[in-house]
Design brief:
Blueprint: H1 2-19, H2 27-47, H3 53-61, H4 69-88, H5 90-98, H6 100-105, H7 110-151, H8 155-180, H9 184-206
Helix pairs in contact: 1-7, 3-7, 4-7, 5-7, 7-8, 7-9, 8-9
């Protein structure tokens, strides 16, 4: 865990420092590049060390049904610390994320808020990967927000619908995996995809 948090912190420093300069590449494209290369490197390390093959597979696909009490306690502590901070600094985080230049001209401490934002996200992702695995965390970061954006454009409601979509899909996927004897994480991700397709279809009809 300490190693994972250390790597996450280095990643936070990289994206935070990069975000202060104007670049031709967007942060989203660089994040995608780093994600692909990190997964490839992880698979190479697993292949070169057969003793950690099982745990490496769990890291990729997750093992939600075997979550321990200590995992839940750790995630609860993280939520109690980080969630109120994001609620308290919601407007500042939103401002520096969508219009950093204007935020800087208003004397807002953009570097500080960006660092706090990246740091809290990095810690959250690192700890959640320990429980849910890479696929589950990455899918949960991407698909529910897309569902929210399809339904509505107001950013506050996008967050709300994203959380609702994630919770409903996760619960449905776990029940599906239990009754049909399926791996939990792929089942949840398939439910994500199904909800996304249904919402997109309905939005195109009623648009």
């Amino acid at each position: 865990e300490l190693a994972a948090l250390s790597v996450a912190f280095l990643g936070v420093l990289f994206f935070w420092h990069r975000g202060k300069d104007e670049k031709s590449l967007t942060n989203e494209s660089v994040i995608g590049l780093v994600y692909v290369l990190s997964c490839a490197l992880g698979l190479i390390l697993i292949a070169k060390n057969p003793r950690i093959e099982a745990s490496g597979i769990d890291l990729l696909k997750g093992n939600i049904l075997y979550t321990t009490t200590s995992d839940l306690i750790l995630l609860s502590i993280m939520t109690v610390v980080i969630l109120p901070l994001h609620i308290l600094l919601f407007k500042e985080f939103l401002f520096v994320s969508f219009d950093r230049e204007t935020a800087h001209t208003t004397k807002l401490r953009t570097n500080l808020y960006e660092f706090i934002l990246y740091l809290t996200i990095g810690i959250t992702v690192a700890l959640c990967m320990r429980v849910g695995g890479i696929l589950f965390v990455f899918g949960s970061l991407v698909i529910p927000p897309l569902i929210g954006l399809i339904l509505i454009r107001r950013i506050g409601f996008v967050f709300l619908f994203s959380v609702i979509a994630a919770v409903v899909s996760a619960v449905s996927g776990i029940f599906l995996s239990y009754f049909l004897d399926l791996p939990s994480t792929p089942a949840i991700l398939c439910i994500y995809g199904l909800v996304f397709i249904l919402v997109s279809f309905c939005a195109s009809i009623f648009k």
